[in-house]
Amino acid sequence: MPRPGFVLEVDRSTPPLLFHHGEWFRLHKLPSGARAIYAPEPLDGLDDVDGAIRDALLHPLDADPLPALLHPGMKLTIAFDDISLPLPQMRRPDIRQRVIEAVLDLAADAGVDDVELIAALALHRRMTEAELRRAVGDRVYDAFAPRGRLYNHDAEDPEAMAFLGTTDQGEEVEISRRAAESDLLVYVNINLVAMDGGHKSVATGLASYRSLRHHHNVDTMRQSRSFMDQHRSELHSSNWRMGRLIAASGVKVFQIETNLNTDTFPAPFDFLQRREWEWSARDRMTFIAASKSVDRAPRRLARSIFQSLEAPYALTSIQAGEVEAVHKRTTEWVHKQQLVSVEGQTDVLLMGLPFLCPYNVNSVMNPILVACLGLGYFFNLYRGKPLVREGGVVIMGHPTTWEFHPVHHPSYIDFFEQVLADTTDLDEIQAKYEKSFAEDEWYRHLYRTSYAYHGVHPFYMWYWCAHALQHLGDVIVMGGDPRAVRRLGFRPASTLDDALEMATDVVGRHPSITYMHNPPMFISDVT
Amino acid sequence: MGFPWRAAATPRGVAPLPEKGRTGADFETAWARRLPARLARVLIVEGPMRGAVRGVANPERTGLDRLSDLDTKKAVIFAANHHSHVDAPLLITSVPEPWRHRLVVGAAADYFFATRFTGALSALAMGAIPIDRSRVNRRSGDLAADLLEDDWSILIFPEGGRSPDGWGQPFRGGAAYLSVRTGAPVVPIHLEGTVRIMGRGMNRPRPGRTLVTFGNPLFPQPGDDARSLGARIEHAVYRLADEAATDWWAASRRAARGETPMLTGPEGPSWRRAWALGDRKGRRRKASRSWPNLD
What we know:
heterodimer; A: 2-enoyl-CoA Hydratase, Chain A, domain 1; Rossmann fold; 2 domains; seven-stranded mixed sheet; 20 helices; 20 strands; 21% strand; B: alpha/beta; Glycerol-3-phosphate (1)-acyltransferase; 10 helices
């Protein structure tokens, strides 16, 4: 029986605790009186995955069984989440492959011929053949891709986009034409955090800049408190309005959402997600040996080793049918896996940031993504109130090197060198620079034909930090490249002690300190 | 020196004891599953056998992800179509861990175990166990079932022998019988291309490319008997063959329409079957000269 998460009161007997620090980890001794929040242990996976998938398709929520929606001569489109999920990539077979094969089996039984599959990547980079094969499996890839029936969504192809209308809040809704004109759109999702899924799947995943700018902007992000709490997130409200408009315009969506547990690291590194005092002698030796090796290994090698890790995630739940009914059930399962009750806010919040975020799979974690991961994702992993009080300090541990992937993140380089060198002010950046990056022909070309994130994407990453930047008194990066950290507008610190000392400038002497112990990830339910 | 230094001859008029068979289905293979022989086999399989298979058959292996839900501590029955002597080494090197090194191969007792030398060689190198294909032999079935219950996986060619003409043969019920009896899942496998490498009648391998496609495991269902499960296994292999020839989606649609092509080929005279085979067999013989070479 997996144990629930808990809050550890640190005292003199508490061992140094594990912090993510880029491609490896650090052990830090926390001062007595600090708190460390531990995530619930991974839930047990389902024994009969294929049976559960089939059951979900045959007994959907608030919708007809999938076979009843399939008929000869129809146009069927299957869209699926892109490379940004799950993190790290899961051990083969990917859950998307298993679900898509089950859907296609039913489509074959029903005599459906016209089927297309779309990687719903919005303004993310295109997936490579190897990445698509990993997501949908070789069988599906070989059957569809060579005939052009499995492809990446292209939000900049005017012919491939369909404008569906405007919501009562003036939000324009434009999604993939193929999806919009299909008799049935099946969306296959992976829910790793509460933010994923629901109407966001189609309204964001298959949309264009014209649509996305209505909710991916500074104001919306500031009013999303948090992204992980759908009912208090303006980002979600906007997506829900768009999703309802999509449904009202006749697009029939059959949503399939999957919940994975938080079993993040494969053996022999599985101990990294266990509590430090439960590590065996072997685990400790493995940690020491790996630490020494990673410290001496070239950065590129360490990165490629960590990027090739395959998480042994297990499916805990799958539900299909009407979007909102499905997402309600999915969110319950996310909370069942990830929610930890925490009493009271803190003055200083500590977090160790890993080597990976949704936007650097098989790529480089550049400083903008470090900011986004810490202030966009980790900071927002709360329900109720932020874990850190207003005016408090966040201390993030990450190397934060001045390094970019030139193929994947070309616009990030210019954003970092040109925009952040000018200002870090969100409103000013949005007003002054966003349009020129979003409509830049070269970025557009790279997004469509190479493997580059869209020109506007670094802006979105920066906006992702909006709520945190408005809320916090200071942000300190521990162990980061001082130049890169300062460019972000944060303060660099060499050690945890230095960082805590620096934080007292803002929060006073003897602050309360809380550490988000990660991995695995969790959502704090702050009361 | 006479008796007792030497054995005494059987007196005339007394019926001699029946001689205990040491070849064929009676060949004793238990020694080949003990630790020293298993270690030797690991070296053989991962060394020369894998190298030879790579050089001769250049295999591409697909569908291994379909085995991801199987209990890795339990035995599995691997059932494949059979065209060539290359099939067994190809499959032994293709079966994934942890089954690969706790695997026995059902081999024709009358062929592989015809002499003690070939029997010992087969048992050591392939972990072969003798299967009597000429008649129903309780010993073969009991041995295979006991091994499955002892968590030894087994590789079986349900066609009972290599294809005589490049087309498949109807499946026999051995794999299904063992599955129903022991509850072990059957993994259907389709092999493509081995007939061109060393089909029946070829005495030298001709290097080529092969495709090994693993299918979804089949479990005996309540009410299943060897006949019904055998039919499912056979159909599963046919579907994998269709998948290998076209793609998964086309094969799925054809299967849904009940139009999966059989591997046994058309009925009719042998020339018609050979004609329908097209270039699938791909066997090209050197043209033999009708007249002596006078150069």
